[in-house]
Design brief:
By secondary structure, this protein is α+β, with helices and mostly antiparallel strands. The protein has a domain at 55-122 and 166-252. 62% of the residues lie in helices and 12% in strands. The chain contains 6 helices and 4 strands. The chain has helices at 2-20, 26-34, 54-122, 128-142, 157-188, 229-241, and strands spanning 193-198, 204-212, 215-222, 245-251. It has a 4-stranded mixed beta sheet, with helices on one face. Strand 3, helix 6 (229-241) and strand 4 (245-251) form a beta-alpha-beta unit. Helix 3 runs antiparallel to helix 5 (157-188) and helix 5 packs across helix 6 (229-241). The protein starts with a helix and ends with a strand.
Length: 252
């Protein structure tokens, strides 16, 4: 009987202790029983090997992307500067080539003028007026009285005529060289035809027509009648001396 009483007293104590213990939510009790604890709220996700959170990886990727953009901008600026320097060098080179070409053209023109003037000076063609003056001067000199104590003065008319002929030949050579220079400028342009008026010694109007690459056709019209054949020959020689092709040379 005493043992049954003791068992009743202990059962009553256990029931009172169970009622007096604080109650906890069922979820927490279940987690404690299962032994599972989740991550703390707000904690960053880490890799399996304990590396830094994904937030740090993302910031590193953003920094690398910014560095790549900066390097691309630097390359763009460097490329722009190199292009500007290349354009400046091309401009300077083209200016130097044009200046050298102008100097060469001027030198070639001077050589052509000197060569034509030397050829004409070596073999001047006597004009009809000079031949008639020489024929009339010979009888007068023969019939002049001698022994009057006055020495006969040498005649300088022939020397004057020779100097005048040389100057005229040089002037015509310069006119022909100027015509050839105009023809070269015309060939470099896109114009199909050109009209040039030559004054001074030649005094003619020349019509230039493009007939092919580096080839022209000339029509010469004298302002005081047809030009003499030696002027046409001088123009033809000047054109060929500059390496140009002359398809035809006519007089209108």
């Amino acid at each position: 009987m005493s043992s049954d009483r003791d068992m009743k007293v202990e059962g009553a104590r256990d029931a009172e202790a169970h009622r007096s213990a604080p109650k906890q939510p069922f979820g927490q009790v279940l987690k404690k029983v299962a032994g599972h604890n989740g991550p703390a709220p707000g904690a960053g996700i880490r890799a399996q090997n304990g590396a830094a959170p994904i937030r740090g990886i993302r910031s590193t990727a953003v920094t690398a992307h910014g560095a790549q953009l900066a390097s691309t901008e630097n390359l763009t600026r460097a490329r722009t500067a190199m292009n500007a320097q290349a354009a400046l060098l091309r401009e300077v080179r083209s200016e130097g080539q044009s200046q050298n070409e102008q100097k060469m053209n001027a030198r070639v023109l001077d050589l052509i003028v000197k060569e034509l003037a030397a050829d004409l000076r070596a073999d001047p063609a006597p004009s009809p007026g000079a031949q008639a003056a020489a024929d009339t001067r010979a009888p007068v000199e023969a019939s002049a009285p001698a022994g009057n104590g006055i020495d006969a003065q040498p005649q300088t008319g022939t020397q004057t005529e020779k100097s005048d002929g040389a100057q005229l030949a040089q002037s015509k050579a310069q006119a022909a060289a100027a015509l050839v220079a105009r023809i070269e400028t015309f060939l470099k342009s896109n114009r199909p035809a050109l009209a040039v008026t030559l004054g001074g010694a030649i005094n003619a109007r020349v019509e230039v027509e493009r007939t092919g690459p580096g080839e022209v056709s000339l029509k010469v019209q004298g302002t005081r009648g047809p030009p003499p054949p030696e002027d046409l020959a001088r123009i033809r020689e000047a054109v060929r001396a500059r390496g140009l092709k002359l398809s035809s040379l006519s007089v209108t």
